[in-house]
Amino acid sequence: MNALSIFNKKLAARITSMVSTMWCAYIFAVIALISLPGAIKSGNTIVIVSWVAQTFLQLVLLSIIMVGQNVQSESVEQKINETHAASLGEFELAKEARAIANQELQELKNISAEVHQLLRDLEKKIQPS
Questions:
Q1: Which of 1, 81, 127, 129 is the most exposed place for a label (fewest CB within 10 A)?
Q2: Would you say residue 129 has pLDDT above 70?
Q3: What is the DSSP string of 10-35?
Q4: What interhelical angle do 58-126 and 22-34 show, nearest 10?
Q5: Where are the alpha helices (DSSP H) in the chain?
Q6: Taking the model in full, what pTM does it have?
């Protein structure tokens, strides 16, 4: 990646982080409201609708929507982190359970070997010589 591309990405990220705040939405609302009296004085319905649609809604809602997306992203990220932590906990429990099961299996094999040895010994004692 060249230096200009890196610069552009950093600049875009910085501008996005500044625009996606409620303070920016408040500033945009104030800026939009400055032109409201002129739109109303014109008496032209198209100018008023244009002010609402192009000036107020686009300018103010842009920041508010970005703030909402950030809030939703944080919520999703928190859920992902919680799920990941829970999954890791379950994985550790499963590893412990498997280790215990392997230990118990080995103990059962040892007991089985001892029982077989006892049966062979008993068989030798019972058989007539």
A1: 129
A2: no
A3: HHHHHHHHHHSSHHHHHHHHHHHHHT
A4: 160
A5: 3-19, 22-34, 36-42, 45-50, 58-126
A6: 0.59
